[in-house]
Amino acid sequence: MSIERRPDFSSLPLPHIRFGAGRISHLSSMASAYGTKMLLVTGRNTLSRSDFLSGLIAGLQEEGMHCTCLEVDREPSPEMIDGVISSSRKQLFDVVVAIGGGSVMDAGKALSAMLLQQHSVERFIEGQPGLLLHDGRKVPFIAVPTTSGTGSEVTSNAVISRVGHGGYKRSLRHPAFVPDVAIIDPELMVTLPPEMTASTGMDALTQLLEAYLSPFSSPYTDAVCLIGLEQFSTSFEKACGAGAGDVSVRAGMAYAALMSGIALASAGLGIVHGFASSVGGLVDIPHGTLCATLLAESTRENICQLRARGDASSALHKFANAARILDAHAGADDAEACDRLTGLLETWQERFGFPRLGTFGVRESDFDTIIATTRSKSNAIALNEKSMRSILESRV
Ligand SMILES: [Fe+2]
Questions:
Q1: N or C: the chain end with fewer CB closer than 10 Å?
Q2: Domains in the chain, ordered, with CATH?
């Protein structure tokens, strides 16, 4: 079954993308096009502790770049961004480069967005009282992902979070914040540990599924999602196991994450990312882990509600299509394929031991607050409070 749709869609500009093994060697020439003063943002992960980073910085300096280094160890908070901006006021950076996972890229993106502004970053964060419209002026930004997850290398938003009572996890967003350059080099990903590969990979898969099922999807985003799902399908289990050191496997995962970022920017995301915002503002939980722990149950609930309401759209057919890409044994029957999809997601959940929400301090007494602040207008189907509670209860 297929539903005739007009191919209407909107898209953001894409960065200048350099994708492939060894492309990190292009960083110096790409950055120097903007000038010589670089703010280099990195994470405290395996890559930054290795000789790679010191070698990279030495190479940049040899070629005339002046690098100011900043290490970040968590998702950026308003205080972190404001603190770096105030201490950098007198330095006129020509370019910001972020090399790391989603949090590092978001920190770099937010810093590039705020270096030319006078107000606190909080004035520009979506949903905050007294929101100011950002004028789009920023310092040029180069994103270099070392994980395959968020797709932040091609999106226009940086996620900023303040965790705790009254906390939030929201976006600083403007079309101008799309990175100017994205250097996606799978060789930078071969040392990512299996646990991180699995959880960040599940973020990419969640984004592909949620964008594919979004009511705002289009033939354009569908095509992007389907090729992303194919790459994910052939790479994910290998990347988490014996193929971790295989650059072609890592390239498949990087491509899947890239496609997920392109698709979500146009189609939006669903209930798992709705929870990522509400739960992520309440407790300190890595974004990929949150996606990984909620994806199976959220998919089951979406399919259950679509069936209960006599799905008149093509949503169940799309879930079945995704199942047939991810599971070679999913057959032509849509209902059976949907069941296989939830089964596969549960198998991964068990195999990789994705921790439950309670591990991070979420309690049943938090559910009312979480549900009240969860938004998911791009979910496959509108979910009521009972459905959201059911998902949370199954994973607390
Ligand atoms: Fe995500």
A1: N
A2: 16-189 (3.40.50.1970), 194-395 (1.20.1090.10)
Distance of CA 267 from the midpoint of ligand 1 (Å): 13
In contact, 303 and 323? CB cutoff 8 Å: no
Q: What is the pLDDT of residues 329-356, one digit of tens each?
A: 999 999 999 999 999 999 999 999 999 9
CA of 205 to the centre of ligand 1 (A): 9
Q: What is the pLDDT of residues 18-70, one digit of tens each?
A: 999 999 999 999 999 999 999 999 998 756 567 888 899 999 999 999 999 99
**Closest residue by Cα to residue 294 from 211, 340, 354:** 354
pTM: predicted TM-score of the whole model, two decimal places: 0.95
Instruction: Tell me what the pLDDT averaged over the chain comes to.
Output: 94
Q: How many CA atoms lie within 13 A of 328 on its CB side?
A: 2
Identify the burial level of 374 via C-beta atoms within 10 angstroms of its C-beta, where 0-12 means exposed, 13-18 middle and 19 or more buried.
buried
How many whole angstroms from 254 Cα to the centroid of ligand 1?
14
Phi/psi of residue 116, nearest 5 degrees:
-105, 10
Name the amino acid, one letter, at 318: K
Centre of ligand 1 to C-alpha 59, Å, is 33
Q: Length of the chain in residues, anyone?
A: 396
Distance of CA 131 to the CA centre of its chain: 24
Mind giving me the DSSP string for 300-349?
HHHHHHHHHTT--SSHHHHHHHHHHHH-TT--S-HHHHHHHHHHHHHHHH
Q: How far is the CA of 289 from the centre of ligand 1 (A)?
A: 10
- Sequence-distant (6+) residues with CB within 8 A of 349 are 292, 293, 295, 296
